[in-house]
Amino acid sequence: MSKIAFIFSGQGSQYVGMGKELYDNSDIVKETFKEASEVLGFSVEDLCFSSTEEELNKTENTQVAMVTMCTAISRYLKSIGIEPSMTAGLSLGEYSALVTSGVLDFKVAVDLVRKRGTYMTQAVEQGKGAMSAVIGMERDAVEEVLKVGREKGIVEIANLNCPKQIVISGEKEAVEYAAGLLSEAGAKKVIPLKVSGPFHSTMMKSASEKLHNDLKNIEFKTFKIPVISNYTAKYFENESIVENLRMQVMSSVLWEDSVKFMIEEGCNTFVEIGPKNTLSAFVKKIDRGVNVYNVEDLTSLEKLTKGLEG
């Protein structure tokens, strides 16, 4: 019997119009967007479906748009009988996972990620930080090179996405210097990312501290579905939720390790919820033997339902 994991997209895969087809065809999706709009005091439908890329790509906007869309699709899947055995999300996607697990109220999550996005934007002056994707090097080799790169400032591993695909983050000069060193050391590609800050680095410490103050005041419920943490690549425990979410903002995202853990726990079907198929590609590079689906519209939903029936 299939053991299904829902995995939720993070920031960076958003686009104007995402989720519109499912919104037009599902009352549950419409209701989810309505709830988010009521909390925030503006139309999340307009933000997702008719705003500009520039507006949607503002971190504080991206985060609420993604969590709303992902939660809406998760609710829809549950309504038609597709339930996960476990769940996880990449960075921001972790909040959608926690909502799906029942431990975090959706309306609370929407308000929280709006603040999280604002704190992350405020943490580092625009242009001072940078991130780059490193293709074709093992994590140990990358870390060795970064030790030299730190001569120019802060540069750290931000994401361990899948084998030989790693993201680095930190001060702009140090990241650029490290990029040159990594290329010399054998990286196939080092690609600068279009981001508004050095996420998942210690430069996000002030954002982490502000978020911590909010997290301490939230009532977390009991897990109905297990969630795997970005910070530990193990199951969340109720007593560690606040600390894990605090540290997640300024620590490496252990995505490859998280997927391997889910597979070890018996998961053989991964359903990526959210726009595009970034996480699906990562999962297939980690283990080609598992089933992988992405759901963001009616066509991809049909592929999932047929795949599960088969």
Produce the secondary structure layout.
Blueprint: E1 4-8, H1 20-25, H2 27-40, H3 44-49, H4 53-56, H5 59-79, E2 86-89, H6 93-101, H7 106-123, E3 129-135, H8 139-149, E4 155-162, E5 165-171, H9 172-184, E6 189-192, H10 205-215, H11 241-248, H12 255-264, E7 269-273, H13 278-286, E8 291-295, H14 298-309
Parallel strand pairs: 1-2, 1-7, 7-8
Antiparallel strand pairs: 3-5, 3-6, 4-5
Please tally the β strands and state the result. Answer: 8
First and last CA, distance? 12 Å
| Helix-and-strand structural type | alpha/beta
CATH H-level name of the largest domain... which superfamily? Malonyl-Coenzyme A Acyl Carrier Protein, domain 2
In the CATH classification, which architecture of the largest domain applies? Answer: 3-Layer(aba) Sandwich
Spell the H/E element sequence.
Answer: EHHHHHEHHEHEEHEHHHEHEH
Low-pLDDT ranges: none
CATH class of the largest domain: Alpha Beta
How do the strands of the widest beta sheet line up side by side? Answer: 2-1-7-8
Structure commentary:
Keywords: Acyltransferase, Transferase. With 310 residues, this protein is an alpha/beta fold. The chain folds into 2 domains: 4-123 and 203-309, Malonyl-Coenzyme A Acyl Carrier Protein, domain 2 (3-Layer(aba) Sandwich); 129-195, Alpha-Beta Plaits, CATH 3.30.70.250. It has helices spanning 20-25, 27-40, 44-49, 53-56, 59-79, 93-101, 106-123, 139-149, 172-184, 205-215, 241-248, 255-264, 278-286, 298-309, and strands spanning 4-8, 86-89, 129-135, 155-162, 165-171, 189-192, 269-273, 291-295. The strands form 2 sheets. It has a 4-stranded parallel β-sheet, sandwiched between helices. Helix 13 (278-286) links the parallel strand 7 (269-273) and strand 8 (291-295). The longest helix is centred in the N-terminal third of the chain and has 21 residues, at 59-79. It is globular, with a radius of gyration of 19 Å. The relative contact order is 0.17.
